[in-house]
Amino acid sequence: MDARQTESARDPKRTLEETESARESKRLRHAGLDAHVASLDLSSFGEFNCCVAVAADGTRFVCTTSALYAMTPNGVQALVAGHRTETGFRDGQGSEARFNSPQGIAVDCDGNVLVADTDNHALRKVTLAGTVSTLAGNGQKGFADGVGAAARFDDPWGIVVDAQGAIFVADSENHCECGM
User: Fold this and answer.
1) pLDDT on residue 1
2) How far is CA 79 from CA 68, 76, 94, 103, 123, in A?
3) Which residue of 60, 64, 127, 171 could cross-link 131, Cys pair, CB 3.0 to 4.6 Å?
């Protein structure tokens, strides 16, 4: 088991009610197909935003208000992109990049992580090498269909990728779903 799993995750006899205190702290909850719930401690990541995505190889990605982290199936945790505490809007490699309160992430068929960068009003892409680029939006909120920086979002929140690679974003303050 992952060294960061809590006692409640190690003891399958404990009830869900006993593990509910995990909401008070920074934990990722895993509910197995057998209804067993396990908690992973994320307190070392900073302000956890409840963004979670899982790659085909089992790597779990989580977002904080300013960074994207990966947790491999064998328990290795690492900063992929962004900064532990500094927010902003910047493309770049690894810790040079900046995010601002992303509220949704998804993994595409190539293993790239797509980020609904909410307070930057943009859709971002993080490659396996940790390179961050902006796919759509330019940091200014609004409503506009278009390509790249010409597109406008107002608090993009949720994001999914279908089997063909099409990206769908819940553009929350524009009250719509946008497809790419």
Assistant:
1) 32
2) 6, 10, 8, 17, 19
3) 127
